[in-house]
Design a protein that fits this description.
Layout: E1 11-14, H1 22-36, E2 43-49, H2 55-68, E3 71-78, H3 81-90, E4 95-99, E5 108-115, H4 123-134, E6 151-153, H5 157-166, E7 179-183, H6 194-198, E8 202-206, H7 224-234, E9 238-242, E10 249-252, E11 258-259, H8 261-274, E12 282-286, H9 291-299, E13 303-307, H10 311-321, E14 325-327, E15 333-335, H11 344-358, H12 362-365, E16 374-380, H13 391-404, E17 408-414, E18 420-427, H14 430-448
Parallel strand pairs: 2-3, 2-4, 3-6, 7-8, 7-9, 12-13, 12-14
Antiparallel strand pairs: 1-5, 4-5, 9-10, 10-11, 14-15, 16-18, 17-18
Helix pairs in contact: 1-2, 1-4, 13-14
């Protein structure tokens, strides 16, 4: 079957359009229940979601399929994606499921899975589930009636997650005297701001009034200028902008200046190196991370290891290389000592720890990395033809790379969830970077549309 279920990070798409339809969600529950039954008397799955209106639809459909296959379902309601990773391990579940489209608008939704160890599923497991869902003659192998599963609501999930997060910083540390502006993107973290208050911080919350359709709506990590203005207005020390499912973080310093994931990684990597806690001085990032981060690590005797886009790929490389810090420019940050996936609140705590220990303004601490000018342009495409199969595209890329004289780079890639090609160019001269990006985008439009 030519249709595809899984993209870069689970399923994602517009609600009531394939693959985000109730019937597909029901079959996903059946298929994942079948795959993750392990022979025990009872089987467990944890399901969490963000604040989208359609979350009720997919929660119900998944629960029906899973219970039919003999899985007991634990519903924790709106919770960040990394919280489901943690709770899956904490509750000794066989599987964790998150219903969220991350930073996308409310009309989209998505479904992603974690295994019993809190890691995202391997490709071959996703393919097995996908084949079962899309097969027109699938035999579901239902269990006997007495082995059908039950569904339970878990009321203390937020408390468990907050206690776990607190253990990631020194137990005698407080954030007393630190003023934080926290933008929850009207998403899954809207009810968790008291984490910072319990640690002594003065917290100003915005984007914390979800209504089902305002998630990521001109707030959160995609709109850091919003939290930036509030930081300046409130004379705060730092601004924290999360996305709809709480797995990414963008930061604003006390002047309202935005720090992306690369700059946060540089600051955290330097801190870990200073403390002798960055094994092999290895940092893992994706192909999208700024070239300046590569230079930063090299100048300090370290190495930047690059992966394809997606925090799952970053985590896989971290496990393989024994690295403890990795992430994406977009704000997915993985501290593997504590977590198995990107976690915005955990990253915020680690950054605040550094801020308190150094007792310096964030603007001074963040000057470690000055990003090279980098421009990213999306091009709508009708066909996702491999770039290497289009000679004029290859010739154009080589021409631009030669013009950059080794002081920049070009990256072309297709989105895993949209009919879009992404053109990225970076280099020392902003005007030239703008010009080369526009040229390449135009060539893709003429040859792939």
């Amino acid at each position: 079957m030519s249709r595809k279920l899984f993209g870069t990070d689970g399923l994602r798409g517009q609600v009531n359009i394939f693959p985000m339809t109730p019937d597909i969600a029901l079959k996903l529950g059946l298929a994942s229940g079948h795959v993750f039954r392990n022979g025990r008397q009872r089987h467990r799955v944890v399901i969490g979601k963000d604040t989208r209106l359609s979350g009720y639809v997919f929660e119900t459909a998944l629960t029906s399929g899973l219970c039919a296959m003999g899985m007991d379902v634990f519903l924790v309601g709106p919770m960040p994606t990394p919280a489901i990773s943690f709770l899956t391990k904490n509750m000794r579940a066989d599987l964790g499921i998150v219903i969220s489209a991350s930073h996308n608008p409310f009309m989209d939704n998505g479904i992603k899975f974690f295994n019993k160890d809190g890691y995202k599923l391997a490709d071959e497991v996703e393919e097995r589930i996908s084949d079962m869902v899309l097969s027109p003659d699938q035999n579901w192998d239902y269990p006997q009636p007495e082995k059908v599963g039950r569904a339970f609501k878990i009321e203390d999930a937020r408390g468990r997650y907050i206690v776990y997060l607190k253990y990631s910083i020194p137990q005698d540390m407080t954030f007393k005297g630190v003023k934080i502006v926290l933008d929850c993107a009207n998403g899954a973290t809207y009810s968790l701001g008291h984490l910072f208050e319990e640690l002594g911080a003065d917290v100003v919350k915005i984007g914390a009034e979800p209504n089902g359709i305002n998630i990521n709506d001109k707030c959160g990590s995609l709109y850091p200028e919003v939290v930036g203005r509030k930081v300046v207005e409130e004379k705060a020390d730092i601004g924290l902008a999360l996305d709809g499912d709480g797995d990414r973080l963008i930061v604003v310093d006390e002047r309202g200046m935005v720090l992306d994931g690369d700059q946060i990684m540089a600051l955290c990597a330097q801190n870990l190196m200073d403390r002798g806690k960055l094994p092999g001085n290895k940092l893992v990032a994706t192909v999208m991370s700024n070239m300046a981060l590569e230079v930063f690590m090299k100048e300090r005797g370290g190495t930047l290891l690059r992966t394809p886009v997606g925090d799952r790929h970053v985590v896989e490389a971290m496990r393989r290389e024994g690295a403890v810090l990795g992430g994406e420019q977009s704000g997915h940050l993985i501290f593997r000592e504590y977590s198995t996936t990107g976690d915005g609140l955990l990253a915020a705590l680690q950054l605040l720890r550094i801020l308190v220990e150094k007792d310096q303004p964030l603007s001074e601490l963040s000057g470690l990395l000055v990003p090279f000018p980098q421009v990213l342009q999306n091009v709508h495409v009708e066909r996702k033809i491999p770039f290497e199969d289009v000679p004029i595209v290859q010739e154009s890329v080589k021409k631009v790379e030669k013009a950059l004289e080794g002081k920049g780079r070009v990256l072309l890639r297709y989105s895993g969830t949209e009919p879009v090609a992404r053109v990225m160019v970076e280099g020392e001269d902003r005007d030239k970077v703008d010009m080369y990006t526009a040229e390449l985008a135009e060539i893709l439009k003429k040859n792939l549309c």
